[in-house]
Amino acid sequence: MEGAPFAWHNDLRYIITKHPKVMSTISTALILAGSIVLLPGVSTYAGDTILAHPVVKIGGGIAIAAGKWLRTTVSSAEGVAQAEPRGQEAI
Q: How does pLDDT run across 64-80, given as a tens digit for each residue?
């Protein structure tokens, strides 16, 4: 099993390069969902519901971080694809 620990990295790279619009939409959804949870009014209005729990706020922060990372990765992959001459692949 050559390169087994990094097999997920190749799969993620493939999905990002083949479906950048879908991955961009997913990143936007992650950022939006995380932002809604972190709004002060939402947690205040939620009161004793699950949205007021600190773990939900931590999850919101993680969702925002993951969404921003994914957006940056998609943007850099699109930049590399545009900079490459046609018919050649990046190494």
A: 999 999 999 888 887 76
